[in-house]
């Protein structure tokens, strides 16, 4: 033989097809003209391409193993008028690790996910509820059942690409003839055309429709919680499987309680006398009316916890707490009798001229004025 294609690829004569392809990919990465533009390297690259064209084709390989030379004995014939660079996809595979995908693409594709906002009350978030929601999404066209063709008709094989979904074009370059493929412009790569589209969906296989769904809201959801409803989103083109629907929870502000995690907070304002003497304050909680025990001597800013009166834990057992913050109200207007009573109380307690008590780190008025004059 004039040319030893096995030796060009560095293989033994009993090499398998997998070994042949592996050797070609390795050499193509090393010798491709874009990587190594040396003229001698280009000739070597043409040789390995010719060798691969022969050894990767079972019929040509059989002829070659029997003593013939399918490539005509001329190195680089694969780049000329013979095969026309028929292994372009294998070279792409050598550089990018995957061959170009061939064949028509499916008209049926998965639909997109959808999301809807749902406003709920604090009580519904705390204990859970069931809601009915209206959703407007793409659904399967009932006229054509997702096929896209008018009733009584069907899709036909594209006469331009003959069902392949792509058309090929041969161009010349410094490497020789290069064959490239692109989606068929007539069928958009589907391999089929719809001569008579469905009048209801215009050939898309889906229409927009408003539906009513029932959503179960678990106890403990919070602002931003998303509930996934599998398969309730947008139906895909060609009647493809539907995506998912996500229901995003938004909790309405409450007139009394403020939520922080699973705890609830509220403020109760009591008069000065009630704080001093103690009292019981009625409070409408999520569980009904309860009495908050205000102990004698309660100070403004103190907190009273009601355990287990908050929001149900979304993950786990139990509930958060209800924290009642006490605000003591000082009377702004006093009549003569009330003023006299307070003055008598102040005298009895020795508080007619009380000395202010400052906490560590705080300064009185004169200390602040002194620091100001001293430039501190």
SSE string, helices as H and strands as E = HHHHHEHEEEEEEEEEEHEEEEHH
Radius of gyration: 42 Å
Q: Class by helix and strand content?
A: alpha+beta
CATH topology category name of the largest domain: HSP40/DNAj peptide-binding domain
Determine the fraction of residues in helical runs and give it as a percent range: 10-25%
Main β sheet profile: 4 strands, mixed
Q: Uncertain spans, ≥5 residues at pLDDT below 50?
A: 73-100
The CATH superfamily of the largest domain is: Urease metallochaperone UreE, N-terminal domain
Question: What does the overall shape look like?
Answer: elongated
- Looking at the overall shape, the CATH architecture of the largest domain is Sandwich
Strand content: 25-35%
CATH class value of the largest domain: Mainly Beta
Number of domains: 3
Strand order of the largest sheet: 10-11-15-14
Number of strands: 15
Between the first and last Cα atoms, what is the distance in angstroms? 102 Å
How many H/I helical runs?
Answer: 9
Provide mean pLDDT, rounded.
83
Summary tags:
3-stranded mixed sheet; about 375 residues; HSP40/DNAj peptide-binding domain; elongated; zinc-finger; Helix Hairpins; 4-stranded mixed sheet; alpha+beta; 15 strands; 3 domains
């Amino acid at each position: 033989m004039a040319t030893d294609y096995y030796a060009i690829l560095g293989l033994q004569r009993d090499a398998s097809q997998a070994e042949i392809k592996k050797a070609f990919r390795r050499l193509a990465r090393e010798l491709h003209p874009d990587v190594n533009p040396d003229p001698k390297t280009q000739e070597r690259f043409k040789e390995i391409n010719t060798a691969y064209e022969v050894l990767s084709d079972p019929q040509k390989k059989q002829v070659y193993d029997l003593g013939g030379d399918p490539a005509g004995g001329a190195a680089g014939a694969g780049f000329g008028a013979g095969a026309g660079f028929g292994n372009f996809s294998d070279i792409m595979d050598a550089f990018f690790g995957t061959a170009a995908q061939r064949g028509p693409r499916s008209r049926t594709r998965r639909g997109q996910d959808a999301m809807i906002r749902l406003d709920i009350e604090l009580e519904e978030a705390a204990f859970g509820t069931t809601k009915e929601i209206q959703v407007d999404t793409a659904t399967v066209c009932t006229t054509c059942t997702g096929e896209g063709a008018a009733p009584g008709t069907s899709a036909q094989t594209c006469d331009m690409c003959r069902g392949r979904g792509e058309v090929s074009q041969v161009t010349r370059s410094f490497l020789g003839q290069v064959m490239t493929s692109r989606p068929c412009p007539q069928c958009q790569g589907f391999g089929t055309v719809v001569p008579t589209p469905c009048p209801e969906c215009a050939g898309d296989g889906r229409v927009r429709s408003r539906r009513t769904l029932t959503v179960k809201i678990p106890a403990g959801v919070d602002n931003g919680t998303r509930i996934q409803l599998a398969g309730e989103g947008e139906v895909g083109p060609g009647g493809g499987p539907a995506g998912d629907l996500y229901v995003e929870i938004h909790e309405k502000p409450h007139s009394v309680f403020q939520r922080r995690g699973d705890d609830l907070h509220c403020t109760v304002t009591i008069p000065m006398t009630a704080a001093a003497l103690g009292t019981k304050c009625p409070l409408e909680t999520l569980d009904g009316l309860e009495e908050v025990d205000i102990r004698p001597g309660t100070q403004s800013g103190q907190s009273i916890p009601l355990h287990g009166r908050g929001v149900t834990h979304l993950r786990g057992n139990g509930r958060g707490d209800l924290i009642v913050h006490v605000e003591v109200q000082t009377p702004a207007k006093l009549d003569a009798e009330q003023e006299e009573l307070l003055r008598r109380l102040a005298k009895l307690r020795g508080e007619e001229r009380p000395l202010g008590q400052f906490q560590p780190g705080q300064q009185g008025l004169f200390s602040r004025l002194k620091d100001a004059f001293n430039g501190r």
